[in-house]
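Protein folding task:
====================
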Amino acid sequence: MPIKAVLFDIDGTLVDSNDFHVAAWEEAFATIGARFEAHVIHDQIGKGTDMLVPALLPDLDEAGQEKLGETHGAIFKAKFLDRVEPFADAHEILARVHADGLRVVLASSASTAELEHYLGLLDAHALVSETTSADDVERTKPAPDIFATALEKVAPLAPDEVLVVGDTPYDVEAARKCGIAAIGLRSGGFADDALLAAGAVALYDDVAHLLREVAQSLIAR
């Protein structure tokens, strides 16, 4: 089936924010006396609070998880959000997909407030038909909820008419659980092996690389 919609992750895919999230989580964990190497936190980036915190602090109760997530969010907004920049050609890949007649959807584990900020940063309001954030679902990636909700929003499209573009194994895994193929980008700092093991059907360095080869990519299938 031809692809009719592309679901884009945001952090690490369209905007260069993963390292800032690592720094914000380091500060948040420090508020409760927990410390992790940056690479350990990075390996969990792409998940929302509900998945990331239990992976590193499995004994922390739900209230503690939520408080830690709120602390991370406050630190990220205060210190890092305004420093986040789009990757080269991030706007252009959205514009190209839109111009080709495909629906452009942003499907992220970020909060609604962050997603709205990035819509403006990417100058993408006129290009994006639907959005899904962590606030819309019970579970974030790698659970399928975010992409499953996005699928509902682009109904009646079938999973094989939709493609995901993301930078983490959790994007790829969540897409696979919904029956959606996923392109992996290296821009988030994850190894090829991790992206391929999760089920990525193709790899590109970043959105600029994908844009250069979009006519030969699965997007043009």
Summary: The chain has a mean pLDDT of 97. Strands lie at 5-8, 103-107, 128-132, 162-166, 181-185, 202-204.
